[in-house]
Amino acid sequence: MEAYTSFAKVYDQFMDNIPYEEWAQYLRGVLEKHGIRDGLVLELGCGTGTMTELLSGYGYDMIGVDCSEEMLDAAMEKREESGHDILYLLQDMREFELYGTVRAVVSVCDSINYILEEKELEQVFRLVNNYLDPGGIFLFDFNTEYKYREVLGDCTIAEYREDCSFIWDNYYYEEEGINEYELILFIRAGRDGSVPEHENVRPREELFRRFRETHLQRGYTLEQIQTALQNAGIEYLGAYDGDTKSGPHRQSERIYVVARERGKKKAEENIRNRRIKHE
After folding, report:
1. How far is CA 139 from the centre of its chain?
2. Using an 8 Å Cβ cutoff, are 26 and 53 in contact?
3. What predicted TM-score, i.e. pTM, was given to this entire model?
4. Is the domain 6-144+220-277 a CATH 3.40.50.150 member?
5. Which CATH architecture has domain 148-217?
6. pLDDT at 42
């Protein structure tokens, strides 16, 4: 079953405990550290556009890519409210296409973990390297293998809200490094107009509709991420624990990685040298 369809309707409500503004400030600080204070920035796996909006508010010209039409619908509603000039593209990050290069690429909220095969991960990184300006920055996070194995794996999480509730069952398959979670949603009628009114049923506001989604995420080690970056030809610069922003450790649950485009600058220098030689 396709992920982020029904869940998109209530995604922001269940994610209201995520410190997006704090994360956005961190991303901005890293980008500015590398001299990127404006210009085109791409967000891969932008979802409902919360981070895209925050970065746009900092003055970046944002492009958001996501493969869920329902999530992008929510993102475009936010764009209409904010008035920010954001381009949203319905694309799979494993084969995304842009018209030109960007100064930076960011990807947060463990979007990278939805890439289940290391070869596909390398392909994503190759595309990022291809669409970055010479020396451009790639900044992303990922959930670690440790988090799925020791924290999320084989546990159930449930949450009740007035208009919606969920039951989230996790199953971790250690040999494959895959975490499967089955999400059961109960959404109050009227939020999406999905339940028709009839004379012989309870009032519409008392009805809930049940939805089910299955999500798969791959747990990675930092070493696997570094290898994929290297194989894709992109330069690894460093990594930071998601909570402390210091160096990652064996029990890090989320890790931020900073990488840099490699290749275009050298190619441009070679072309320039050849031109000088011919002159």
Report:
1. 11
2. no
3. 0.86
4. yes
5. Single Sheet (2.20)
6. 98
Q: Which residues pair with 158 in a beta bridge?
A: 167
As averages over each run of 10 residues, the pLDDT of the chain (279 residues) reads: 58 74 96 97 96 97 95 94 97 96 96 96 97 97 95 87 84 93 80 48 64 90 97 97 94 97 66 53
How far is residue 17's CA from residue 56's CA, in Å, rounded to a whole number? 21
Strand 208-218 relative to strand 178-188, pairing:
antiparallel
> CATH 2.20.25.110: which residues of the chain?
148-217
**What is d(CA 169, CA 105) in angstroms, rounded to the nearest whole number?**
32
